[in-house]
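Q: What residues go here?
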């Protein structure tokens, strides 16, 4: 088994970019870029195994769904690396061309952006430190499943979990479980497809393709970019161990194409479907046609607006930092207390305070959006960490976040006989919310009840003698 830790000096190196950016805070541009490039440095020293060796129980291509890889890339990558376009806009750039020069009036804005980027860098270092410290592989497995049953189990998991999710959707107070099992169905179906293709099982391939097409259609008509991107990304990751070159030359261009056309697609889709004038199918066709055949100038403007304001959440973060603690004091443990309230399912507490309203109250208090606005602007996990206790809050809560993800992943592999069922299916399916950090209340609630769901599924598979004790 791997040793529990690397030399402490290597963990300290994770925080060097943040410290350097902090020392250079007098120069906002320099401080920002040190913090921004610092996250790429953290990616490099962690994903190459310099801070702590990569687990050797599986080839790297066969462990990409573990927190160190996919979760760090999505969570930290989205959090830390996407703000550069907003920063460029602050410096006077538009569509990568400088159209204005920032003046002394922009100094405060630049300082805020650089400050938030330093917080992102600190959060990245803390998160990955939590993952690495508890990354103890190989897992001592207590259960196993016969390998020849695995492909069938994945297919059945996809077919069963989807109707189960619909049942939860119909039960008042239990709709939160709908999202868990809907995600589990998607992951199971995608994983089953990745298993069926190499063995050329035509029947399973057709069934899995139908499931995947259905899930992709749902993502396409959701009005959000993340489900579409994740649908493609997960399939590529599952196929990568078997078809490395093919995946590299096809899925990378596809991902780039998605980032090119999705901003326009989503903009057109929402304006048509969410207005109530057009159904989802028609809105999707109109949006797809506009994204693929639209005017180049309009496409360029939409994409730049997307890159600056919607790809990153730093604009919102700067507003929270501007108001806290200057006009709104740190929340201390108040957000944790609210999170405990959110843990109780509404089916057991009909008069429970509305979680959305609890979260939005701090958005209104910070002046991020107007109280009369219909827009939802819930703070990200790192923002709640900052609002709770400033820099220390970011260090502490992001470390706990990484540690919790890694410990849950280890538990899943222990309960379900290894990586395929434990991490690729259960952890990725039930705990997919951890790929993107959201507000404390939603995060704590979903993670707790996903953990309960994981234990229940484990007991059911044991009772059915699908899982067997070693």
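A:
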């Amino acid at each position: 088994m791997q040793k529990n830790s690397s030399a402490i000096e290597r963990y300290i190196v994770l925080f060097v970019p943040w410290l350097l950016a902090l020392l250079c805070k007098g120069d906002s541009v320099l401080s920002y870029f040190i913090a921004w490039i610092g996250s790429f440095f953290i990616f490099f020293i962690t994903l190459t195994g310099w801070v702590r060796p990569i687990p050797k129980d599986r080839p790297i291509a066969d462990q990409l769904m573990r927190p160190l890889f996919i979760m760090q890339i999505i969570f930290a990558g989205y959090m830390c690396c996407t703000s550069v376009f907003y920063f460029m806009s602050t410096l006077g750039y538009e569509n990568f061309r400088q159209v204005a020069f920032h003046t002394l009036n922009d100094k405060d804005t630049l300082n805020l952006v650089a400050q938030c980027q330093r917080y992102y860098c600190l959060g990245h270092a803390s998160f990955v430190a939590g993952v690495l410290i508890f990354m103890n592989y190989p897992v001592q497995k207590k259960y196993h499943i016969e390998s020849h049953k695995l492909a069938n189990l994945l297919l059945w998991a996809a077919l069963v979990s989807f109707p189960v999710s619909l049942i939860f959707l119909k039960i008042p107070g239990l709709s939160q479980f709908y999202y868990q099992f809907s995600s589990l169905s998607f992951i199971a179906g995608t994983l089953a497809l990745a298993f069926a293709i190499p063995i050329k099982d035509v029947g399973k391939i057709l069934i899995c393709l139908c499931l995947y097409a259905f899930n992709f259609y749902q993502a396409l008509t959701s009005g959000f970019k993340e489900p579409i991107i994740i649908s493609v990304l997960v399939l590529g990751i599952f196929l990568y161990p078997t078809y490395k070159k093919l995946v590299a030359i096809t899925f990378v261009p596809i991902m780039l194409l998605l980032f090119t056309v999705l901003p326009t697609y989503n903009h057109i889709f929402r304006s048509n479907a969410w207005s109530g004038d057009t159904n989802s199918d028609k809105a999707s066709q109109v949006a797809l046609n506009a994204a693929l055949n639209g005017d180049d100038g309009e496409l360029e403007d939409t994409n730049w607006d997307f890159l600056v304001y919607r790809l990153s959440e730093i604009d919102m973060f700067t507003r929270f930092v501007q108001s806290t603690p200057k006009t709104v004091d740190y929340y201390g443990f108040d957000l944790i207390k609210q999170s405990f309230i959110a843990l109780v399912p509404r089916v057991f507490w009909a008069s429970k305070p509305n979680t959305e309203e609890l979260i939005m109250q701090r958005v209104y208090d910070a002046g991020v959006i107007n109280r009369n606005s219909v827009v939802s602007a819930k703070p990200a996990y790192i923002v709640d960490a900052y609002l709770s206790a400033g820099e220390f809050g970011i260090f502490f809560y992001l470390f706990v976040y990484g540690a919790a993800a890694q410990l849950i992943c280890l538990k899943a592999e222990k309960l379900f006989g290894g990586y395929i069922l434990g991490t690729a299916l259960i952890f990725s399916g039930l705990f997919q919310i951890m790929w993107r950090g959201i507000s404390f209340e939603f995060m704590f609630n979903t993670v707790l009840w996903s953990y309960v769901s994981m234990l229940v599924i484990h007991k059911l598979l044991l009772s059915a003698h699908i899982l067997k004790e070693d």
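A: Context that may help when evaluating the design: The chain has a mean pLDDT of 87. The two ends are 18 Å apart (CA to CA).
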